[in-house]
TrEMBL record, chains A, B:
NCBIfam families: PRK05472.1-3 (NF003989), PRK05472.2-3 (NF003994), PRK05472.2-4 (NF003995), PRK05472.2-5 (NF003996). It comes from Geochorda subterranea. Its main location: cytoplasm. It is found in: Cytoplasm. Homodimer. The gene is rex. NAD(+) binds at residues 91-96. Coiled coil: none annotated. It holds the Pfam family Put_DNA-bind_N. It comes from the Bacteria. Gene3D superfamilies: NAD(P)-binding Rossmann-like Domain, Winged helix-like DNA-binding domain superfamily/Winged helix DNA-binding domain. This is Redox-sensing transcriptional repressor Rex. Signal peptide: none annotated. The keyword Transferase does not apply.
Length: 213, 213
């Protein structure tokens, strides 16, 4: 069952709620949590917490709150995080490499962290067919083949801006439907494919605005 | 002059407009741009482009469009990007190091890119007082002193989640008012300090939602 027409703004807050619930669940001493407390810990107003979660079902009881264990499980299902998601990193320069190491550490330390980088790609002949942190670096033109073989569903793109659109086009052709782009470029994807931008420069430029206040 | 009460959503789109204008300006062959074209290139509706920019002044003429060179200059002023902003990277593990290298490359290649990483900090005694890519790594407890001396205004935080709040508190004490946090932790800052989260895991979890569609 999927829930249609839920806005990206709602979806954006779900991982924040999940993080609070994971912390409470693993600490073990919070069984019930009010929307007030969940909101405070997630940095969202209690009314918005209730409204967001109501899109997906009735999870809380008035005056009692949300059952932490249950809501955590449900949110993991809603976000498709109840099963392993196999991820490619395309472009293993210093940023790509750092993201691989970060992912491997998270994956190793947290058995519930199901986002797993399992394949690397690069265009540099000197890197292709070598291993990085235990993973083989494939040439980009094998993306479709490796995607099929490895069951890749998501890609993290850290190639130079000039190559980014071409790489994203290849991801789309290969059937990858969720892409996190770090290249400082405006990219387009067809409907049905989701692209998120993690361009660090844009974030810094946005923050710079507030320095003048 | 500052413009009060402008929503974060508006501010978030300004760097997207600036990027389009920078590209047009440097290509040299586009002198005027309609809100239609600016919107298309930035991925924003033309009506929203006009509405966003109207917060800051009258930049366009109906039926003529925006003068690229002028609007670019004005946006750079609005975002405080018309002068150098000195940035600290706190935590120089693999992600921190990758961000330093990325910044140095951008800064070197683009004379208009005014976000400049000039100081590094770490807690690891083996790293402290050594140089990384030409920059000295300082101990974290000298943050206030180095901030004063170097005129630091912004910090990029890439320390482990468990240390992140403490590091951010130190930034606030040192007078840094804009912080980009990569640690997977919910952090709080007092009013007047701006914190942006660039937690890669949250972005990936959000994208995972769409895999089930």
């Amino acid at each position: 069952m999927r829930w249609k027409k839920i806005s990206d703004a709602v979806v954006r807050r779900l991982p924040l709620y999940l993080r609070v619930l994971e912390e409470a669940y693993h600490s073990g001493d919070v069984k019930l949590m009010s929307s007030q407390e969940l909101g405070e810990r997630a940095g969202v107003s209690p009314a918005l917490v209730r409204k967001d979660l109501a899109w997906f079902g009735e999870f809380g009881k008035q005056g009692v709150g949300y059952e932490v264990r249950y809501l955590r499980e449900e949110l993991r299902k809603i976000l498709n995080l109840d099963r392993e998601i196999r991820v490619a990193v395309i472009g293993v320069g210093s940023l790509g490499h750092a993201l691989v190491r970060y992912n491997q550490q998270r994956y190793r330390e947290d058995q519930h962290f199901n986002l797993h980088v399992v394949a690397l790609f690069d265009a540099d002949p000197a890197k292709i067919h070598t291993r990085l942190d235990g993973l083989m670096i494939h040439p980009i033109d094998t993306l479709a083949e490796v995607t099929r073989r490895e069951g890749l569903q998501m890609a993290i793109v850290t190639v130079p801006a000039s190559a980014a659109q071409q790489v994203v086009d290849r991801c789309v052709e290969a059937g990858i439907r969720a892409i996190l782009n770090f290249a400082p470029a405006k990219l387009t994807v067809p409907e049905g494919v989701h692209l998120a931008n993690a361009d660090v420069s844009l974030e810094l430029q946005r923050l710079a605005y507030y320095l003048g206040e």
